[in-house]
Amino acid sequence: MAKRSKYVKPEEPTLLRAHVLASKQVSPNFVRVTVGGEELSSFTAMGFDQWFRLFVKKPGQAELRLPTQTSLLWYAQYLMMGAEKPLCRNFTVREYRSAEAALHGAGPEIDIDFVSHGDASPASAWANSVSPGDELGMLDEGLIYNPEPAADWQLFVGDESALPAILGILRSADRGLRGEAFIEIPHADDAQEVDAPEGVNLHWLVRTDSHARAGKLALDAVTAATLPTGRGYAFLAGEKDLATGLRRLLVNERGFAKEDISFTGFWRFGKAQG
Ligand SMILES: Cc1cc2nc3c(=O)[nH]c(=O)nc-3n(C[C@H](O)[C@H](O)[C@H](O)COP(=O)(O)OP(=O)(O)OC[C@H]3O[C@@H](n4cnc5c(N)ncnc54)[C@H](O)[C@@H]3O)c2cc1C
User: Fold this and answer.
1) Domain boundaries, the chain
2) 267: CA distance to ligand 1 center in Å?
3) Is 235 in the pocket of ligand 1 (CB under 6 A)?
4) pLDDT at residue 2 is higher than 70
5) In Å, how far are 64, 164, 170, 223, 247 from 193, measured between CA atoms?
6) Is 246's pLDDT higher than 90?
7) CATH superfamily to which 15-142 belongs
8) pTM value surpassing 0.85
9) Confidence class of residue 45 from pLDDT cuts 50, 70 and 90?
């Protein structure tokens, strides 16, 4: 039998230019940046946790230069751009609106929810200081969420960086889905409205200790949780140790098969994304 692929890749990845339409602080630790522009009409929205490479100018760069390749070759090309190399970071489509549903202009729009984690971090700083008209590039990467069809139920766990991904998955999921979702956030007001299937129990975990390491609360909550029985599929994302620690726990102590887990380190303590 053919092996299920790990990711759901876009049929034709697009690398497009867009610009900022608006930005607003939506909660204590999240800034929502809305982007648009003519080229967004070639973006194919896939729903769920669709993610993309975000390219923006580095301080001091006069122009936003982008790689031209959309195959895996884009990265080699990017590395060879020398001083013209833009900043590149990974983000999730929080919401896609077609031209008919647009709130700010005449064409399609995408909202991106950035965790505000300090102006020493370039993408976070960019989101905190954008103005309408600022340019960006987006390379569509598709979905990490790729559930095992035979799973009886699903588990979603993440910290704040994975909030857009988990809420996107719950919004796109089949209404008959059963599962448990745990999202760790730095402040109670960072919780967002959720459009989830009735059979999914969502637990917001608020990190009340500001010195606590992100992800620990979620790891502890899942360790202590009574989870549904039957074959589970898990989507785990957030700080690297959360994703890898949970995967270990689910495999060693909760009987999950490794192939029934999608786990991704969305960021890493003390380390800038490459
Ligand atoms: C598939 C995918 C989808 C993602 N989607 C989103 C999304 O929609 N929204 C979002 O906010 N993030 C998302 N992330 C995470 C985001 O790419 C990282 O947080 C990234 O490191 C941010 O870049 P930066 O330039 O702000 O910080 P970097 O330059 O990469 O890091 C600088 C410092 O900040 C720390 N840091 C990085 N991220 C965080 C964080 N979230 N909280 C606290 N400290 C941090 C690092 O440890 C480092 O010390 C996603 C990651 C992946 C892989």
Assistant:
1) 15-142, 153-267
2) 5
3) no
4) no
5) 35, 11, 11, 26, 27
6) yes
7) Translation factors (2.40.30.10)
8) yes
9) very high
Ligand 1 atom nearest residue 120's Cα: 32
> Helix 240-253 crosses helix 216-224 at what angle (to 10 degrees)?
10
How much is the average pLDDT of 14-41?
A: 97
Site to substitute for ligand 1 among 138, 166, 263, 267, most atoms within 8 A of C-beta? 267
Separation of CA 56 and ligand 1 centre (Å)? 15
Where does the pLDDT of residue 273 fall: very low under 50, low under 70, confident under 90, or very high at 90 and above? Answer: confident
Check pocket membership of 90 for ligand 1, CB cut-off 6 A: yes
CATH 3.40.50.1000 fits 153-267, yes or no: no
